[in-house]
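Need tokens for this chain, all 208 residues.
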Amino acid sequence: MIIAAMDHFGISTLCGLTSAQGKDLLPRIAAYLDAPLVMDCTDLNLNEHTAKKSQFSGKTIATIKVEGRHYIYGIRPNAIEAKPAPCETKVIPFKTNVESEALVVKEIKKQAIKGIDLTEADIIISGGRGMEKPANFDILFECAELIGAAVGASRAAVDAGWVPHTMQVGQTGKTVSPKVYMACGISGSVQHFAGMKTAGMIIAINKD
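Here are the structure tokens for all 208 residues:
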């Protein structure tokens, strides 16, 4: 349906989020259109068809220029500040025919998410190996509820089975860009840093 709408309205550039859904959807659209795809963008220049993203665990920022008839970008959540544009918008209804035989939804499963979604949170409190045991994460959840924050975790805490993988922040987890990131008992490995280095403020809490 998205591809049909792009063709109908003559849309050449599609922007989405580098979320779980975006990581699944945007590559499919890019493959169908044979279009260049850049995911996890932290900045865009739509006129010059360039995008910036972190590389090598956040050690460098690459500027990528793409060419083609269509351009697909996945933007890191909260990475680009929303600014008011001096223009008017309107909603245009669009309908397309989708054969029922070609698309069959058998079941929809929604995973229960405790608290605020990590990728959308302005404040994140994460715990690592220094939390010592899974029960101590209750302290983080209580604190998060008081200040309206989301709770994350390092890979060490996830690998230990203390919290689910959906809470992991880092290179092999979720990439976040909150206004404030509080790391509790986290060593600060380069892999974890790659997932939260664009936070506005980073507060590290350790007893050592």
